[in-house]
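Page header: ASSEMBLY MODEL / two components / 672 residues total.
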Amino acid sequence: MSVSIQESLEGGEPVEEGHYNLRLYVAGQTPKSILALANLKSICEQHLAGRYRIEVIDLLEYPQLAAGDQILAVPTLVRRLPEPLKRIIGNLSDKERVLVGLDLRPGAAK
Amino acid sequence: MTATPLPRLPKSPTGIKGLDDVTLGGLPAGRPTLICGGPGCGKTLLATSFLVNGAAMFDEPGVFMSFEESSADLIQNVASLGYDLAALMAAKKLAMDFVRVERSEIEESGEYDLEGLFVRLGHAIQSIGAKRVVLDTLEVLFAGLGDTAILRSELRRLFAWLKQQNVSAIITAERGSGALTRFGLEEYVSDCVLLLDNRVDEQITTRRLRIVKYRGSAHGTNEYPFLIDTRGISVLPITSAGLAHGASGAVVSSGIPGLNQMLGAGGFYLGTSILVSGTAGTGKTSLASHFVESVCARGERCLYFAFEESPAQIVRNMRSIGLDLQPRVDAGLLRFEAARPSLFGLEMHLARMYREIEEFAPTAVVLDPISALRGDSGDVHSMLLRVIDLLKSRGITGFLTNLLAAEGRMDHADAGVSSLMDTWISLVQLESNGERNRGLYVLKSRGMNHSNQIREYQLTSQGVHLVDAYLGSGGVLTGSARITQEALDEATARRRQLDADRRRREVERKRAALERQINDMRTTLEAEEQEARQAAEHDAELERRFQAERSAMAVQRGSKLA
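Prediction written out in full:
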């Protein structure tokens, strides 16, 4: 209850193998954050249909959460599960980069 | 011309000794200050001191946002300076936030901004009502994030935002080659820029601080040495404003009665500088110890900077001339500060002296010997100049000793500092007749008459003792020559005395002889006179008898005739 303002719950229970637990940190409803969420949803639908969960955290409302996940830039997408923790910053408009960041496209160099 | 003073730039005192002096009150309040310098310059420590002092001394809570060290590391690191960050955090005087930026963990995709950082900082500021902020070191962001264009515009926004928050902020940055900072942060922080430097010269490092700019405020422009040790940071303001120190007419004893007599005023003037120079073994330290003892005997404090001997050694050695300094040390009147000259650079020595003098507030300071201070003669001179300035500005009497390398030759230090000295006492070895004797003379003593004699002195078990000078036909003599000459003089005097006696007796004798002669003559005369008288009486008798006979005859004839 402490975290989400918009929760998109799609897919099954978090214990499932290959389940993606994603958090998107934003600071207010800026064009950047709206675009980032839209980009994220579309990527997830395309590649992770049914095995992902997105939490959106607005730091303007919960500033104390920023330190915990080492948030510096916004928007930041944090892949909490599966391990290891991954961070992708930006409005997620570079889809290739997001896929590399989420380990969905192996081998691509940065 | 307006009579009312213009409003001054509000300042946020750092509480760091000396830094508030050279910045004329502290860092600009409510504005960011940039501190740049190479690695190991003390940027983080300076920034931490600013926060800790702010929280402890000025009731201004602070936020420490670290990009390099974790909070735990930082707490441990500054504990060596006596800073207890954990306690301050518990008291809500300090908030710490460690921002970890790891390039390998971050993927960039599209546009972003650093609002997250703003949120974190804003949250920390609000949580304790912070007035001070430290960002150490922002430049890590340049390594962690790829898009420098975004970063630069965000930093510009950050500094503007900090001003809006009305916090006094310190931003630290690495020194770049050819520029103040590696990533040109000085472009954004233009209110106040401090440059720290850690220079190695002849294997000795000296930390220095310079105020590169300070918008809206006057400030000292020199490079100021500063010191980091267990008591935190102290910055040393190098130059006193001018030659404005007062002059006291009060006199302090040199601790040696004979020496006091040589000085017209009966001692040194209070607050002046005294130089004692001499070759090895002339008793410079002994002279200094006498002075120390006389200061302590009056119940005043004395600070002794020893550069060649340890305090225990000095105390022991001075016992051999009958001075026990240990009770003075125990009573807190005398403090020794011993350090090898090579331990730090000149500036560090100066900074250390400055701090000790500030802390101990002595009325007299001894530097023994200044010749031990290594370095370029110009540097040594400028350092001594500042030491003397420092002492004079506080009315402290300074007693400096100087070891001369060779007899009769003035050392560079000697020639250099002599003009700074008010009294200069020279100790010389007088070598003759196969022995060395110690001679002392007052080369100069400003503002008083002084003896022009070279006086012999002895280091006895009762202290330094000035012997009455031998000044005779044989010139000035010392040691056994003096004793011989004194004996010789005595013999001459005796001979002269005997001669005089003899002459006097001769005259007596002559007078007696003459008087005897006179007596004889007088007796003869008297005898002759008597004889003459008797003869005259006899003649008169004869005449009378003749007359009588003639009368008788006449009577006889007259009767016939008649």
